[in-house]
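=== How it folds ===
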Amino acid sequence: MICDRERLAHFLQQLKALSSSVGFTKSDLLTPAFHLAKDGDLDLYYSPHNEYINPYAVVAISGITPGFFQMQLAYKKAAQLLKDGETLETIAYETKKAAGLSGSMRQNIIEMLNECGLPAALHVEDSSRLFDSKRELLHTTSVIKHPVFYKQKNYTGHRPAISRSALLSRYALTCFPDEIEMMKKDILLIPLGKAAESACRMLKKNGRMGHAVILEGFPHPSGANGHRFKQFHENKQSLREQIQRFAGFLQQL
């Protein structure tokens, strides 16, 4: 399902207006045509890859916000699909597959989930299957669903804190839980890193996302997080135990 068909259609029209030889650089995409909102040094831009929502997911993985790399991949894929005459539904779904948690970050997530025992809990051979043949089990998203930039650099979730921005708070405290609550089943919600986890825990404490079991202590998988190996080693046993409890819960349903 698509969360906002009209908005997707609007920005795809903006994409059509770009030159066919466009390189999809920051100068192409971080422009007024794709700009959603501004709050001080923060700028929010539209990306099509988080419009698709899988309401039947068993696992939801959430970053804090997409980076420019994901945005760039999403628009490249969307441009190709537009050229092929694909439907809105197909464009939303295929850009999600191509850009959601993409690049080396995706491989790092897969490797950590394998070590945590998620494949056995879901009865799949490998966590990588969640991104291809078992895609129906997975929903990927972000606490702030569209790319945010602080002084034109990827927003990390810390400066400024979400609570200090009305713009970020609206997405994190309203749009994000609304999306997670579209899931029709109890889900394992995996926030990537401390900023995303803090937002998820606060929402649960305030009575939102009641059907979500939050996996606590999962490191941010970005290659820029030099502490992720140490964090994962320290938390691996706890992560395995949390996943095993969720697997037991699934068996009771």
Remarks:
- Residues 105 and 222 are 5 Å apart (CA to CA).
- The chain is about 45% helix and 15% strand.
- The first helix runs from residue 5 to 16.
